[in-house]
Design goal:
Pfam families: DciA. The chain has seven helices and three strands, in the order αααββααβαα. The chain has 165 residues and is an alpha+beta fold. The radius of gyration is 26 Å and the shape is elongated.
């Protein structure tokens, strides 16, 4: 039975501790908002929106209290129109996430949100001495799946420019 150590921290806690102050200073948001955005935005807008920054009002209101900010949201294409119509509900969800009236207005900026998935390049097959060397390394491997995996790995490693000897 293993017991958790008292001094051990998760990497996510350390990373959030480093990233949150920078995000708060530059964009007024934190990693908790970014991490929970899909639940906040809902299934209609989670894939096409991303919070960019919160512009907090300088100073307070007349009573010296807090004034809510303006959340800038990046949205893809024509879905920005639908987001405009759902602003009231989204503001309520954001404020319930924070636990207080943090946002009073949403500013929508049309820009690409999702990055196109990168295609994995299959390396060119090895030729000459490199191919013979890889075949020699794989001698004795009988499992076909393991052999194919090692073939792909060897081709990728040995096929890099300058490594074909």
């Amino acid at each position: 039975m293993s017991y958790p150590r008292k001094d051990v921290k998760q990497i996510s806690e350390l990373a959030n501790g480093l990233i949150d102050p920078v995000l708060a200073r530059r964009a007024g948001i934190n990693t908790a908002l970014l991490g929970s955005w899909s639940e906040i935005a809902g299934e209609d807008f989670a894939d096409c929106t991303r919070p960019e920054k919160i512009a907090w009002a300088r100073g307070g209101n007349e009573a010296g209290g807090f004034r809510p900010g303006v959340l800038t949201i990046a949205c893809e294409g024509a879905r920005a129109l639908f987001l405009t119509h759902a602003q009231g509900e989204l503001i309520q969800r954001i404020n319930s996430f924070f636990g207080f009236a943090a946002v009073h207005q949403i500013r929508i900026v049309q820009k690409p949100v999702s990055q196109a998935p990168r295609r994995s390049r299959t390396p060119a097959p090895l030729k000459g001495e490199a191919a013979r060397k890889l075949e020699g390394m794989m001698e004795g491997i009988e499992n076909d799946k393991l052999r194919q995996a090692i073939q792909r790995l060897g081709t990728a490693v040995m096929g890099k420019r300058g490594n074909q000897r």
